[in-house]
Each structure stands twice: as structure tokens, then as C-alpha cells.
Amino acid sequence: MAGEIGNIYFVTFFVVLFEIRFCSGEYCSYLNGRTSVNKGDCTELEHCVSNFDQTGQCPGNQCEPGWMGPGCQYVNLALNPLNKDNVFDGDMTTHRSINAATVNLNGTFIVNAFIIHTRWFSGSLTVRDGHQNVLLQKSFQLVSPTIVLPRPVLTDILNMQFSYSIYIKEIEVFGGRDVALWKPTNQSSTYSEAIPNGMIKFSSDKAVDGSGDGNFGNLSCTHTATGHSKNPSWNVNLGKAYSIIAIKISNRNDNQKRINGFKLFGTTENGTKLPVYSDPLPYHNRNEIVLDSTHMPDVPVSVITIEGPNDTEKILTLCEVFVYGKIHKLS
């Protein structure tokens, strides 16, 4: 196990030398994300393409492709390999005239809102799910681009029909906010590696730092210690109860089998630990694992726990755990 990171301590030393405490420009942008230094000063706007203004907001909500909504904090379910049209490419400079659109979500998700980026629209819009059930049918002037469905729906497709052809820059579907980002974490043990100037610890917080980089040498992945007899585990405390829409786990580029056979749990506010998912693919290597809404618990949870498999290594490595959720509202 020794030497997994080689000489990467030179990179770490370089980064430390150039850490500065301010919140502007690329320091707070998605290119670098927040660090242990700036996370207390910056907002959760890692996915803003442009520099932040002095209020800490993302001007014009020009988001990195795949992110959307206020502060670019919400994942966009419409940007996925199943949607090839320009209106789903994450680029606001491309557009075309359409009178209908089919949005494939690449999974089954709870949806309650979407955004249509267009110059202006006054007419009728009908939205149906994959079974042709009508989710929304109304006439309106589209001034604000955000459209909220009368009630959330579990679906894999949204079919949209406009009363006439309109120019559309982009259609985006809200998939929830990453409610695990920079939240408190723990793991059953922590692997450390010696370098000439000290030790590098692959601590539990590296799975919620906003980076899904699977290159272990870039120091953004967790790693439990070796030589333990118990199953390794990791958890994140979300701080409050959320209705979970989906969870995505970014795996490391090598040693991918260590995640195989994992189990995922959610803990409710009253302390009940619910089984959420048991991995059925113990022999497949995967860069990432996406669990859609069909796997999520029916009740809000405040803690997410991942337990590694009971194999010979007993090592759990996570490069990022994205927990897409929304605050549960009492009816």
C-alpha cells in the first residue's frame, strides 16, 4: 500500500504556498471549488462559470454544464447522453426553433420543476410523463423561465408540447441540490501515507469536497486504513432531514473493485437506520454509480452511511458522494 501517491507531495506543497484568504474570481469558482481555507467565506457556488460578483452570486446564473438554478447549485437531469438535441447541450449560445421536446432523464427521478430558456413565449404548454399522463396543461406568458409542476412526479421522460414553434436556448430539469457538500463526515478508520514533510491523511471529508476526480494522486478521495477486521464504513451528516432524489458515487480510476458489494443506509431524524441499497454487482468495475429515485427512501433522512464489502481487503475508497435532495416540507 505504501507509495500509492508517489511524489505528489510536491503538488500539495505548491498549492499550500498559494492559498490566500479572499472570495473572488476563480478562487471560489467550480474550477477550484472551496477548500478548507475558503469554505467558511465562500458560498456554495462552485459551478458558476464566470467570476462571482461582490454579493457572492453567480452573474446571470451562467452555470457549468450539468448544473442549473439559483447559484448553480442544482444538478440538471436533462444533460445526459440520451438527449442529443442542442436544447439539451448545456450551452446557452446554441438554440433552435421547436414546437415539441422529449426530455429523457436517463433514469427514473422525482421531478417537480424545470426551466425553459427562451426569449419570450405567450401560449399554451402541455407536459406529459412517459405514460402520457398529463402533468401540466396551461396557457401563460413565459416571463420567468422556471415552471413548477402542480405536484412532484416520478418519471423517466418529460414530453413537452408548445402551441407553436419557439426559439429555445436550453431546457433544464431540476434534479436536486447536493446537500452533502462540505457537511460533517466520519469513516471507520483513515489511511495515512508518509511524505518527507509530514503525513497525508485520506480523510472522510474528501468525499464531500465537490470534486469527483477519480485520480487518487490528486488527493481528493477517501481511504480507510488497512488491516482492520471490521467492514469499513463512511457517513455524512446532512444537518437536517432531506427528501433524497438521487445519489451518485464517484469511484477512483484504479482499484475500482473496492466499492463492489457496498451497502447504503439512510438514517431518519428519530435515529432509525433504513437500508437503502445493496450493490448487486460485486464483480464489475465502475467509474461512478448512480442511484435514481426508485432506490431512495420514502421518508426524509439526515445521515447517509456507506458500508464497504466484507472481502479480504476491507478497504473503502470514495472520491465523491453527491446526495441530491430537497428540504422536506410538512404537508
UniProtKB/TrEMBL annotation:
GO terms for biological process: regulation of cellular defense response; regulation of complement activation, lectin pathway. It holds the Pfam family F5_F8_type_C_2. InterPro entries: BG_Antigen-Binding_Lectin (IPR051941), FTP1 (IPR006585), Galactose-bd-like_sf (IPR008979). It comes from the Eukaryota. Gene3D superfamilies: Galactose-binding domain-like (2.60.120.260). Keywords: Calcium, Disulfide bond, Lectin, Metal-binding, Signal. Residues 1-25 form the signal peptide. One of its GO terms (molecular function) is fucose binding. SMART domains: FTP. Residues 176-331 form the Fucolectin tachylectin-4 pentraxin-1 domain. Homotrimer. Acts as a defensive agent. Recognizes blood group fucosylated oligosaccharides including A, B, H and Lewis B-type antigens. Does not recognize Lewis A antigen and has low affinity for monovalent haptens. Belongs to the fucolectin family. This is Fucolectin tachylectin-4 pentraxin-1 domain-containing protein. It comes from Magallana gigas.
